[in-house]
Design a protein that fits this description.
The protein is of the alpha/beta class and 492 residues long. The protein contains 20 helices and 18 strands. Bound molecules: ligand NAX and potassium ion. The site of potassium ion has 11 residues, from strand 5 and strand 6. Its cofactor is K(+); Mg(2+).
């Protein structure tokens, strides 16, 4: 599990640890880790050209000390000082005594960047506010346009460490070397898209850190969550998922939701709705009926809404499922009907004894919160939390990094496996069935949502192939068994 902490928590942990260590020890740990990653990226420091972009704070200090280490190993190192009067003095002295040079001329800096093998971004770290400013902007652009590898110190300068927002220009890194713990912005888009490959350098903060603000599951975490049948399992004990999805207009959504559901761990899938004929034709193992959810027989969870349409029967299906005493996943048209139930948002769900999992994309989340879609996309972390609290439900916010938040606080899970190839019609229907199936097999809404997003992303990557190619949602569903095997195989 990768964990990310807020700037406030990182600073508090650093202060507690620093009080027990000699002065400068933490920065030396950070710089040593940074220099080691840089040397690895370069394939050895000797004879290489390294340019440090150095701002006014300790982030620049890390870059200067790492630059001194690289210079001692034979790299030609030049620091471009963006605030020459404020650059970290001891770091500057260390660089100079190791044979490194400095310049305060931004134009000369841009020229150096264009000819560099490696650019180290020490402009700002966790002390940064807003996008890049002044001379940092053309330098960051020159770095992006050069052939140099760009290594960001702690986080790419210009991105917001806590929110993942990118308010203006930011450095585009190939590699980010972060210290002590991840920062939420390294796991959450849009900022995460600027970070490249992230290396965590352990500087000893662990014992002083509280619980994380954001988590990203890894194979072993997901393997531990996935339900595996034992000797005493039967199809009912494994859990039965009810799917109320699709309509005469969108029968395919029902088929795709069932396709996802058959790969989520439930022992059986019941379908209730007007696409029963299409579902049974494609998946003869499904138990189908054409009535409302409450007439379909006993289930352990419902997945409601994909392709359900806008007419009254879809609203009735949602109300019916919510009136049950089992967990309910609400997606797509179901979310629209949820919004339109006419009762206060919380009221629609408050009386339930079992969990609710909402799975909106940014546009649906915006509609549920009455805000602009762009606001949700720019500050996804804030909005997934707000939506979970407003509706008293667990929320899976789909997108470039899918986020899952439970109501009432606690860490948000950021899914690391997504790929842009998943943005294809029907992909969300497969996810609904998959997450619903995991709910039916007994996982909490939080775990079901995050494990489903993880498997769905892996399946998407497999379907796209190593070089990347488009696929249809039915092919995505077809890759789910292989995604399970990837995850379970890595845990053994
Ligand atoms: N505190 C510690 O013990 C450690 C800190 N470390 C480093 O220290 C960093 C934090 O250092 P600081 O608190 O000095 O802060 P930063 O170095 O992140 O930046 C602060 C300075 O940047 C300026 N600034 C803010 N936003 C800007 C923007 N958008 N464009 C240009 N300049 C901007 C501010 O005026 C401020 O002076 C971490 O990110 C990490 O790299 C590491 O050395 C590990 C140990
Ligand atoms: K930085």
């Amino acid at each position: 599990m990768r964990s990310a902490h807020t700037v406030h928590d990182v600073r508090a942990a650093e202060a507690a640890l620093m009080a027990r260590l000699p002065e400068g020890a933490l920065m030396q740990r950070a710089a040593a880790g940074l220099a080691a990653v840089c040397a690895g990226v370069l394939g050895g420091a000797y004879g290489t050209r390294v340019v440090l972009l150095v701002g006014s704070g300790a982030n620049g200090g890390d870059a200067l000390y790492a630059g001194a280490r690289l210079a001692r190993r034979g790299a030609s190192v030049t620091a471009v000082l963006l605030s020459p009067g404020k650059a970290y003095p001891d770091g500057l002295a260390a660089l100079r005594s190791a044979g490194g040079r400095t310049t305060a001329d931004p134009a000369a800096g841009e020229e150096l960047v264009r000819r560099a093998d490696l650019v180290v971004d020490g402009i700002v770290g966790i002390g940064g506010r807003g996008g890049l400013r002044g001379a940092a902007v053309p330098l960051a652009r020159a770095a992006a346009g050069s052939g140099a590898a760009v290594v960001a110190v702690d986080l790419p300068s210009g991105v917001d460490a806590d929110t993942g927002e990118v308010a203006g220009e930011a450095v585009r890194a190939d590699v980010t070397v972060t210290f002590g713990t991840h920062k939420p912005g390294l796991l959450v888009d849009p900022a995460a898209g600027f970070a490249g490959t992230v290396h965590l350098v352990d500087i000893g903060l662990g014992p002083d850190l509280p619980g994380p603000a954001v988590q990203a599951l890894q194979h072993a975490d997901v393997a531990a969550l996935l339900p595996v049948p034992g000797a005493r399992s039967d199809k009912y004990r494994r859990g039965v998922l009810g799917v109320a999805a699709g309509s005469a207009r969108y029968p395919g959504a029902a088929v795709l939701a069932v396709a996802g559901a058959l790969h989520g761990g439930a022992g059986a899938v019941r379908y209730a709705g007007s696409a029963a004929r299409e579902v049974i034709a494609r998946f003869p193992e499904t138990l189908v009926s054409t009535g409302r959810p409450s007439q379909a027989g006993r289930v352990q969870a419902w997945a409601v809404g994909p392709g359900a349409g806008e007419d009254a029967s879809a609203r009735v299906a949602l109300e019916d499922a919510l009136a049950s005493d089992v967990p309910v996943l609400v997606d797509a048209d179901g979310l629209r009907h949820l919004k339109g139930l006419g009762r206060p948002a919380r009221g629609a769900l408050a009386g339930r004894t079992a969990e609710v999992l909402l799975t909106p994309h940014a546009g649906e989340a915006a509609a549920l919160l009455d805000v602009a879609r762009e606001d949700v996309e720019a500050r996804r972390l804030e909005h997934v939390r707000r939506l979970a609290d407003a509706y008293g439900a667990t929320v899976l916010l789909k997108g470039s990094t899918t986020l899952v938040a439970a109501p009432g606080g606690g860490p948000v899970r950021a899914n690391p496996t997504g790929t842009g190839w998943l943005a294809t019609a029907g992909s969300g229907d497969v996810l609904s069935g998959l997450a619903g199936s995991l709910l039916a097999s007994g996982l909490s809404a939080f775990d079901a949502g995050s494990a489903a997003a993880y498997l769905h992303g892996l399946a998407g990557r497999r379907a796209a192939g190593r070089d990347g190619a488009p696929f249809g949602a039915h092919e995505l569903a077809g890759e789910l068994p292989a995604a399970w095997r990837d995850v379970r195989g890595a845990a053994h």
